[in-house]
Amino acid sequence: MPETLALREGYFGDPAAFQALADLLQDIFGIDISHQMALGGPDPTSMPFGYFNPSGRCVANFSAFSMPLVVNGRVVRAAGYQSGAVRPDYRGQGLYRALMQRAFDWAEREGFEAGILLTDKPGLYEPYGFRTVPQFKFQGAVPHTDSSVPRARDLDLKQEADLHIVQMALEARQPVSEIFSVVRQKEMFLLNAHFDPDIRLSLLEEDDAVIAWKPQGDTSLEILDVAARHIPPLGHIVASLGAHFERAEVFFPTDRLGWDGMATPYQGDCVLMVKGLEPASLGKPFMLSPLADF
Ligand SMILES: CC(C)(COP(=O)(O)OP(=O)(O)OC[C@H]1O[C@@H](n2cnc3c(N)ncnc32)[C@H](O)[C@@H]1OP(=O)(O)O)[C@@H](O)C(=O)NCCC(=O)NCCS
Which of 7, 137, 163, 294 is the most exposed place for a label (fewest CB within 10 A)? Predict the structure, then answer.
């Protein structure tokens, strides 16, 4: 007899079901989202849709969550979509189609005006109105700044006091760009910083700013995100990270950095897809900060 699958939605209140989703994502993508539990928990706006077998194994999932964006100076109520996977034995039976439909219907009922996702399979989502948008990073020489800028201090998310500092900075942050950025996305920022051991989080104490960055060789650096009430100028940020850096690559639009880098196409593993956003509102080059990846 074929196995009966139970459809469950919004099931994160059940720790066993959350763990079953973590197991699915570990098996399919090799990532362990259960680390979120030590970083403040999953996004409370998450609305997962999943199929579970009689022994409680999650065999398919697709989740929606609230991901307000700033796009061209306007706050857009967007839904993000993530954690889409079906176990190999269950593929090709329409499970994913059913979950996508439920998630998109839910977002429409909730009044979200736009949708956003990252995928390596854009063809899956085109039938539902999503289109791929190109992303750009920004490169150039670092402006010279007074060398008396205080040195930033490295933060360690495994230290409770440091985790608290980052959480507070993320709660109070100014969107990193008016052109395109998340309004807030605490949970993914923390998980992304946790997943990539090369990402450094540094605190500019005087500015109450947390910088997510990576050194590149001796004289260059990548600025991945800035969580601060007021985004400091790029020259100031870089001087606080090390006086020897001459060139920067910035992975979000630079309108708040007092600096213009050269826009260069960004090729990640996944493409960014959106729906419900006017092409005209996406006229300037942009990318979604890697710390907001989901
Ligand atoms: C991609 C995946 C979720 C599809 O699950 P599935 O249950 O087999 O999909 P369904 O049977 O519900 O098919 C839904 C639709 O997607 C299409 N589809 C399936 N796999 C696809 C792929 N790799 N690329 C593009 N379209 C695909 C199907 O043809 C079907 O189209 P239709 O509605 O026009 O008939 C599954 O193969 C998987 O988990 N892959 C690995 C993880 C992954 O890639 N997740 C998505 C990342 S964003």
Answer: 7
